[in-house]
Amino acid sequence: MTLASRLIVGLCAFALALTGAMPARASVRIKDIAGLQGVRDNQLVGYGLVIGLQGTGDSVRNSPFTGQALQSMLDRLGVNVRNSALRTRNVAAVIVTADLPAFAGRGSRIDVSVASMGDATSLLGGTLVVTSLLAADGQTYALAQGRLNVSGFSAQGEAERLTQGVTTAARIPGGALVERQIPDQLATLHVLSLELRNPDFVTAERVAGAINAFTRDRYKSTVAFALDHRTISLTRPPNMSTARFIAEIERLELEPDSPARVVVDERTGTVVIGRDVKISTVAVTHGNLTVRVTETPMVSQPEPLSNGQTVVVPRTQIEAQQGNGRLAIINGANLHTLVRGLNQIGLKPAGIIAILQAIKTAGALQADLVVQ
């Protein structure tokens, strides 16, 4: 092998070593981190009745609104029950909610969620009667109806009851038909703006730079300008539809930036450390102290013919055991060094949480610590 060949092999090996040592930077599409301002979902809500329950519905005495709704529904169907006492337990009053997507046309189907609002014990096997879904303007935008899908179940006997999941909430996939179309949102937009889902000044500038690099090469002009840490203003090129322009922009890829942050969930023992989290040089030791108190009372019997009494004599035994605490120096130049330093101490999640909080108090954690 010649000297040049050896040099090339050595450089390749060095490059592979650097690639394995450094974490790979992930590029994402603009459509995954930003959305068009003004184009959003609309929330719908309605009040309805679920029928066909096996005696697990609302009681009319405890839920009078169920009886009133049932009477109104039967009146619309031509059945007069005004002077009758309704005692059915096969009906339940529910609240129906749904999200109306942007650009949803008439006749398209959307999913709905159903939740009981009375004293019904289960919605299993029920069917939702046609229900109007209203928006914030009070107009009906969809009609919901269909058989409920309940994920939980409940079984009860005389001495025991088994319940899994929630039996008073359900979903109906594709259970609502859109009856009214929202006005064209793109046609009413005078200024096109992208909104970042995670606001950040660096990411906003990178998005504007990626868009301008694309438009300079394709349209010989710059169209993007970052207004703040959330909004990027766009100028649509002439003789191009808004839909095509947004489609071309959403395919562009870039590397978003994020603040250094450590998220700690003390209930589940979950610790999530961001990529850019760093720790100044700090020495950490962690040890456990276990104290065990054992009560073993003893019975003292009197001597025969001594006219004494039997008494209980307390007996307490206390043991203290302290685990070995290892001292480790952590200098977190990057995420890999930080994780490796914490693993050297051999900690459990609870110990890692305590150490991270102590390092933050000492001022050595160069990141935001979020405790949930």
UniProtKB/TrEMBL annotation:
The keyword Signal applies. InterPro entries: Flag_FlgI (IPR001782). Coiled coil: none annotated. Its main location: other. It holds the Pfam family FlgI. Keywords: Bacterial flagellum, Cell projection, Cilium, Flagellum, Periplasm, Signal. It is found in: Bacterial flagellum basal body. Belongs to the FlgI family. Assembles around the rod to form the L-ring and probably protects the motor/basal body from shearing forces during rotation. The basal body constitutes a major portion of the flagellar organelle and consists of four rings (L,P,S, and M) mounted on a central rod. PANTHER family: FLAGELLAR P-RING PERIPLASMIC PROTEIN FLGI, FLAGELLAR P-RING PROTEIN. This is Flagellar P-ring protein.
